[in-house]
């Protein structure tokens, strides 16, 4: 069915009858579930939306390494350190697949990355919060990667082939990340009273940012209606947020931790948990660069870029030196 309408803050979505033949054929392909590939014709706005979302997603993976890296040198055991190192390396890999997927749309990775460093590009709000204790590493894996899976599994069926295929592998790895986070939380929740208190504190601090991570409420989501018509997004922000809450509350109960929101209650009529008000003022402040760690995160990425200049130069010099041999071969 064409363009399931959702009530969102978006401007109106063009009806099939109002489209020119080329755009109409494109939309019919999307509606039939046929993947769009890089060389296929696509509306300029579809391309632009994909570049926006995929590059933001790639930046999120890159910036998202930083809060966890903060605990690499202080992980409680060698085994925990090795696992955390592997997880952070996975996030770097996700960034690479995603920048590559964005490049299939005719943009250059360096330009996208420079937009991030210049503070012009968005990345997920969640990574602008600090990691204050080891339990935060458990909470990130459990709640942040947990939110990411709920959001990203539908992206495996997104209409753009390279993005959909990248997400298949990303989701497999995110599911390992979510389990490692839950396992850290289980250990702490069953540990000493101090460890349990640390787990509770991490849950209380990461709960609300994890809900906000799913994006503004549907009536404030500028892009949802069009992105859903194009089958880039398969579900609205509110639907995915509710799905995350419904699957996570029983996990909180299993851990024996207190619910982080007094309004979290099962609603028999809706078949979902009700929950309290998300602080959208805080969310938009964080998105607009005024979160607790925005400046620190960008400074860290800029430092890594500057300090990596010699590696880029060396790789370019090596490539130039071997270009004649490669051309001959
Ligand atoms: N943070 O119209 P809307 C990970 C922006 S990394 C910041 O609903 P859309 C991990 C939005 O961009 C996983 N900005 O937008 C890594 C838009 O602004 P623009 C990251 C946000 O695109 C390391 C405006 O608000 N996941 O898992 O339809 C360690 C209006 O929103 C946020 C992805 O990137 C936010 N949270 O829907 C551990 C998933 N939310 O661009 C873990 C891919 C909204 O118009 N992305 N905005 O200026 C998506 O699925 C969608 O882009 C979103 C937003 C659901 C996030």
SSE topology:
Blueprint lengths: L20 H11 L12 H20 L1 H5 L8 H26 L5 H9 L17 H18 L8 H29 L3 H20 L11 H6 L7 H19 L9 E3 L4 E3 L5 H11 L3 H14 L1 H20 L1
Antiparallel strand pairs: 1-2
Helix pairs in contact: 2-4, 4-7, 6-7, 6-8, 6-10
Bound molecules: benzoyl coenzyme A.
The site of benzoyl coenzyme A (BYC) has 27 residues, from α2, α6 and α9.
List keywords for this structure.
single chain; 329 residues; mainly alpha; two-stranded antiparallel sheet; 13 helices; 63% helix; disordered N terminus; binds benzoyl coenzyme A
Uncertain stretches of 5 or more adjacent residues:
1-7
| Number of helical regions | 13
Strand content: under 5%
- Shape from CA axes? globular
Describe this structure as you would to a colleague.
- The protein is mostly helical and 329 residues long.
- It is built from 13 helices and two strands.
- The chain has helices at 21-31, 44-63, 65-69, 78-103, 109-117, 135-152, 161-189, 193-212, 224-229, 237-255, 280-290, 294-307, 309-328; strands spanning 265-267, 272-274.
- The chain has a two-stranded antiparallel sheet with strand order 1-2.
- A hairpin with a 4-residue loop joins strand 1 and strand 2 (272-274).
- Helix 6 (135-152) packs antiparallel against helix 10 (237-255).
- The longest helix has 29 residues, at 161-189.
- The termini are far apart.
- Mean pLDDT is 95; it is low at 1-7.
- It binds benzoyl coenzyme A (BYC).
- Benzoyl coenzyme A is lined by residues 52-53, 56-57, 60-61, 64, 91, 122, 124-125, 144-145, 148, 151, 213-216, 221-224, 227, 233, 237, 287.
């Amino acid at each position: 069915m064409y363009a399931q309408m959702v009530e969102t803050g978006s401007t109106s979505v063009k009806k099939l009858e109002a489209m020119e033949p080329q755009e109409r054929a494109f939309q019919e392909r999307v509606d039939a579930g046929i993947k769009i590939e890089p060389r296929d014709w696509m509306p300029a706005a579809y391309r632009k939306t994909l570049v926006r979302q995929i590059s933001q997603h790639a930046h999120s993976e890159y910036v998202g390494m930083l809060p966890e890296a903060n605990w690499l040198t202080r992980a409680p055991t060698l085994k925990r350190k090795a696992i955390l190192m592997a997880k952070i390396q996975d996030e770097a890999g996700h960034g690479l697949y995603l920048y590559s997927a964005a490049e299939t749309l005719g943009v250059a990775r360096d330009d996208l990355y420079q937009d991030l460093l210049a503070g012009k590009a968005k990345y997920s709000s969640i990574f602008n919060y600090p990691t204050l204790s080891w339990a935060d590493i458990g909470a990130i894996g459990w709640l942040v990667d947990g939110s990411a899976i709920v959001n990203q599994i539908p992206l495996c069926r997104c209409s753009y082939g390279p993005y959909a295929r990248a997400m298949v592998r990303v989701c497999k790895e995110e599911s390992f990340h979510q389990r490692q986070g839950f396992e850290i939380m289980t250990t702490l929740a069953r540990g000493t009273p101090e460890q349990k208190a640390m787990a509770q504190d991490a849950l209380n601090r990461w709960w609300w940012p994890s809900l906000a991570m799913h994006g503004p409420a549907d009536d404030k989501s500028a892009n949802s209606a069009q992105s859903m018509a194009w089958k880039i997004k398969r579900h609205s922000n509110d639907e995915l947020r509710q799905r995350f809450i419904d699957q996570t509350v029983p996990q909180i109960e299993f851990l024996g931790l207190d619910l982080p929101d007094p309004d979290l209650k099962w609603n028999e009529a809706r078949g979902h948990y009700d929950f309290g008000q998300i602080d959208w003022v805080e969310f938009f402040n964080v998105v607009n660069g005024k979160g607790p760690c925005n400046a620190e995160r960008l400074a860290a990425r800029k430092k890594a870029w500057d300090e990596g200049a010699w590696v880029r130069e060396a790789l370019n010099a090596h490539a130039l030196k071997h270009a004649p041999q490669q051309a001959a071969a």
